[in-house]
Amino acid sequence: MKSIGSIASETTADLATAAQRSVPDRWLLPGLGILLGAVILASLGIGAVPISPGQVLSILLAPLGIDLPWTFTDREAAVLFHIRAPRVAAGLLTGASLALGGVLMQALFRNPLAEPALIGVSSGAAMAAAALTVLGPLFLSQLGIPVTYLLPIVAFLGGWAVTAIVVRIAHCWGRIRVDHLLLAGIAMNAMAGAAIGVLMLIANDAQLREVAFWSFGSLGRADWTIIPILLVLTLPIFLFAKRYAPWFNALLLGEGEAALLGVPVEGLKRASILLTCIAIGGAVAFTGLIGFVGLVVPHVIRLISGPDHRRLVPASALLGAALLPLADLLSRTVAAPIELPIGLVTALLGAPFFLYLLLREQRREGT
Amino acid sequence: MRSLMWMMAIAVSGLFVFQAAAEEPRVASLGGAVTETIWALGAGDRVVAVDASSTYPAEAANVPHVGYYRMISAEGVLSVNPDVVLASDEAGPPQALEQLTRAGVRIERITSSHSITGCLARIRAVGLALNRAEEGEALARKVESELASIPAPTNPAVRVLFVFARGPGALNVAGTGTAADEIIRLAGAQNAVTEYAGYRPLTAEAAVQAAPDVILLTQSSMDGLGGADAIWHAPGLKETPAGEHARAVAMDDLLLLGFGPRLPQAIRELQALLYP
């Protein structure tokens, strides 16, 4: 009698050998690790205030009492510590969250075009943020609560609420119907988009800017206080996806087949949605809507190393973590000292790249 | 003994030189009216960065721009290495200003109030922030006396509809409590809209209901819509008394709505446009 896990693992092994791989497995994770390190160093050094790699090292090691020959000013140290470092850390965690959310949603929907926004968490968060921004001053000013600090909490709850509605609608006869989940998600996204449109009609100039921030995303508001929160929200999805990677492999065969292999399919679906909601809700709450990362990253990894989730999960997390600080680096340098919204950068780069992948796929199928 | 005195003299004069240098801070200005006031106080040469709304004077175009003042990035401002940021109290986001404070930049919030008192308070506040309190006081008094010398129009008040174009299809109308409402009142005219505060999208029926004698636009809105003739394509405007006589006038955005030190000039020019 074989254990459940070993059967799922065998399925996984078949998947892995079936996939055509251009990069040897043992190079994939170290390669992505090196990429991540390079992106972090570059992001810390490059910006409107130039700080050389030597100065970065000097500043980072100075609190430990190590003096390096590269001199720096207090202002450069402040920029590095208070502005750039939290920004890079937030980008890293948000990027990993988005990529992992993409992995789980693509496994859940058994569709490589799925992305975390499908279950309504992003649009729900953005709608709640827009509602608080535009309508909040009407009743909050009496209470003396500053809107700024309430925004992430309300956005998180909004994302959670919309996802809960989507899941409730897709819930029938004790199980979640994935096709209904998709359709309900699309409908709720459309409704949230319309609600944001209505709010923008009655918003003043300052509020419009705030809503634009939520619609296109930015890491510019990151500070150290949000990093532990992001970490706490991102870790569960990573640990869960890594631990149950074989189950997700089995799920690729179909829900019925996975159930026959002993995978608790309903529980897996529920947990996936919940953890995606937590991770993506947190990411959106602090950085706004950042598109295409959740869609493209798992896709790229699958092209490189095949659909085995045991590699897909850590590799996607690493690539997502590297990609978002890189996009942020572009967003704050191409038009410096003005910053572009990071969502624009990821969409401008991600969308054409995705179309290229799609065309390549078609050509391969044609031959 | 003599050489010692010399050395002391040099040291003391050195101190003065050092102090003079310290009194000339590098200034970043966020907000069109703030920038205008800095230049009016003769401190334009200290400005190292302005925001996108700072369109006057022309010299402001020669210093780096750090984006729109409501959406600045902390690092963008820090890249010009300012000692002090003079920021309209509408500047933001608050997180970016917090980051600037943490990086050791002094931030002076300047009132953005759209009124005569706001204009005078702004001039004094900018003077104070730049260690030019006397010049600020003098300029405020000068603006005040100029304002007092503007004669009130004797004609009956015309009804003015202020239209602001965010884009070709996105026309907004100013209600009460807006800068446009205040400047129309100061010019002796009457805002055709009194039903609501703030800006609302233009609808054909509301425009006809307001029955304005004149349509007032900012120059950038007028240009964006395609000139004085093109604005009559907007819904409902053609059917108003202003449309019948094709009366639409435009003024520079910052001059009209900024409530900067050119406020007397703005009122006089608007009067000339509304009461030809």
What class, by secondary structure content of chain A?
mainly alpha
What average pLDDT do the residues of chain B reach? Answer: 89
Per CATH, which architecture of chain A? Orthogonal Bundle
Total DSSP helices of chain B = 12
Please trace the helix and strand order of chain A, writing H or E for each element. HHHHHHEEHHHHHHHHH
Work out the count of structural domains of chain B. Answer: 2
Structural class of chain B: alpha/beta
Number-wise, the strands of chain A total 2
Q: What proportion of the residues of chain B form beta strands (DSSP E)?
A: 15-25%
Question: What features would you describe in this structure?
Answer:
The complex is a heterodimer of chains A (367) and B (276). Chain A has one domain: Orthogonal Bundle (ABC transporter involved in vitamin B12 uptake, BtuC). Helix content of chain A is 77%, strand content 1%. Chain A has helices at residues 4-18, 25-45, 53-61, 74-108, 121-143, 147-170, 178-202, 205-216, 226-243, 245-251, 255-260, 265-287, 293-305, 309-333, 342-366; strands at 171-172, 175-176. A two-stranded antiparallel sheet of chain A has the order 1-2. Chain B is of the alpha/beta class. Chain B has helices spanning 2-22, 32-40, 74-78, 94-102, 116-129, 133-148, 179-186, 204-210, 219-225, 241-244, 253-257, 263-274; strands at residues 27-30, 47-50, 84-88, 106-110, 159-167, 170-174, 190-191, 199-201, 214-218, 248-251. In chain B, helix 2 (32-40) packs across helix 5. The interface between A and B is medium-sized, with 27 and 32 residues.
